[in-house]
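re the bet — no i am not wrong, look at it urself. input seq straight from the record:
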Amino acid sequence: MRSLYRNLAGLIGFFLIWEGAVRVGLVPELFVPPPSEVLSTTVQLLGQEPFIRDVIATVLAWAIALGISIAIAVPAGLLLGSIAWLRTATRAIVEFLRPIPSVALIPLVLLVVGGGPEAKITLAVYAAVWPILFNTIYALAEIDPVLMDTARACGTSRARMLTSVALPHAAPFVFTGIRMSAAIALILVVSTEYVAGASSGLGNFILEASSGGTNMDQVLAGTVVAGVIGYLINDGLERVGRRMFRWNEAVGEAAK
């Protein structure tokens, strides 16, 4: 509860400084409206169906992208983390693909899958896979060899060891990767909507609002809503992680 109060105090302080800077003329109001105006615009937009549809489109694309990322990265991480020769054989291609910025792939993705929701989902998946994948591989590398040898001595099959020994051990680390990927996926969805000119979504709303150059209150309102969504996602995952893995220090430290 104390952390919540501190966060709120810091946020209120930031808004007061912002409001004061605009009112005394340090920042031009035409380009940076005061937070009181931005918040008023935000409330008005939340009562408009087209804006709500944009919010839903962004959140839905984020959820789909994160789900696909988990479905790809966790099995791949378990496989690469448990088979040394396969991890070595794929290291070069993984290290080649991982640093490529997802935004740089927008032209290619638009040509291959088109400019619909598939584009932003594809790019978000590409960016969100890596934290989950590497956290899963790292978790398997940290498993106590005695634990694996004991399971092997009891006649446990490789598939059984992955599901009943390796995965439970890796779960807290995988969840930390999911938290990181959740933020990355949201950033990529909104960025792609903005850069690629999607037909719906918060990024598209911000793009259209900024086209005239006189609706900065709407631009900032859309940005605020995106920030609030990101905060709620991260805070929700933190709470889930603390409850599910209360026994694990890694998740406890990551959630702070």
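see?? The radius of gyration is 22 Å. told u. also The CA atoms of residues 159 and 166 lie 10 Å apart. so pay up
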